[in-house]
Specification:
4 helices, four-stranded mixed β-sheet, Helix Hairpins, rod-shaped, 240 residues, 78% helix, binds zinc ion, 5% strand, mainly alpha
Length: 240
């Protein structure tokens, strides 16, 4: 390895800036992609609640049609019984027919009550579907607007990443191959990809530990590569 040069450290710092920016953009991209998925799920769930209510409404309408035919049926039974009433011969038969008509009318009135209740439910369900649909339109407008904004952010992020990749290639060429290897090795060991950190007032800003005074003195001379004894990152002295 050639003697350490101050300019090599500057390249390392610059390379780290590129890595940090790339890392931030990548995590921003993964955040917004998760946000996009969440928006789609929200919209889909909303649509499903409308479909559920529409199923309920269809069921109520089916019930209403059944009541309607039941009413028709019982009305025709009543009519028949009333015709029969006119042709009865005995008082007993007459009483029986009257009773039969009374019973049929009671049943018919019960069906009509149920039908009325069903119509009330249909009306409420129709109102609910209409208001949900209106709300869905508002919600999907808002969602699409947010998706557009996210789309712009994603494109911008991708473009910046490409620019950073190019810069990384150019800058890496000026770095001693051994230093580059070391940088990449340390970077891969760190979850956040930070391999080069400044030291401020003898504190490593990578791990917030105090570095030994002797090392801190050497660090300020910038004439050798130093690693933090605690987090193993490349450290450099910086006046803040
Ligand atoms: Zn450290």
């Amino acid at each position: 390895m050639q003697p350490f040069q101050r300019e090599q450290l500057e390249i390392l710092v610059k390379l780290q800036e590129i890595e940090t920016e790339s890392y931030n953009i990548k995590s921003m991209l993964s955040d917004v992609k998760a946000k996009l998925e969440k928006l789609d799920v929200g919209l889909k769930n909303f649509k499903e609640t409308i479909e559920d209510e529409e199923d309920h409404l269809n069921e109520l309408n089916r019930r209403d049609r059944t009541y309607e035919s039941d009413v028709q049926l019982s009305l025709s039974k009543i009519k028949k019984s009333e015709e029969k009433l006119r042709s009865v011969k005995t008082n007993k038969e007459y009483q029986m027919s009257l009773k039969e008509i009374e019973d049929l009318k009671t049943i018919n009135s019960q069906i009509e009550d149920q039908m009325l209740e069903c119509l009330d439910q249909i009306e409420a369900s129709e109102n609910l579907v209409a208001s949900k649909k209106k709300e869905y339109l508002r919600f999907s407008d808002q969602t699409n607007h947010e998706k557009e904004k996210i789309g712009i952010e994603i494109t911008k992020g991708k473009k910046t990443l490409m620019r950073l990749d190019k810069e990384r290639v150019v800058i890496s060429k000026n770095l001693e191959p051994e230093l580059l290897k070391k940088f990449q090795m340390i970077k891969e060991q760190q979850v956040t990809g930070i391999a080069v950190v400044p030291v401020k007032d003898a504190v490593c800003l990578g791990c917030n530990m105090n570095i030994p005074p002797q090392m801190y003195n050497e660090l300020q001379r910038c004439d050798s590569l130093k690693l933090c004894p605690y987090c193993q990152r490349i450290i450099y002295w910086k006046e803040f």
